[in-house]
Specification:
By secondary structure, this protein is mainly alpha-helical. It contains two helices and no strands. The chain is flat and about 45 Å long.
Amino acid sequence: MSNNTAKQIDQDYEVEAALAFHDDDAKATIATLLGDIKHLRMQLALAEAAMSRGMTRGWTPKFDRDV
């Protein structure tokens, strides 16, 4: 099995698990995921404010992922 196939199977499983958690309600699943994103972005902003540049050797977090 190729690495891409394994990643797709893992992603499909995660999608099905998220939907099952919300009794297959897609809108509730999306709302939860958007809330998680908002929370994690806030956590990232707090971490960025608390970290010194020397601690991370110049690395700074990105709020958007590279596609």
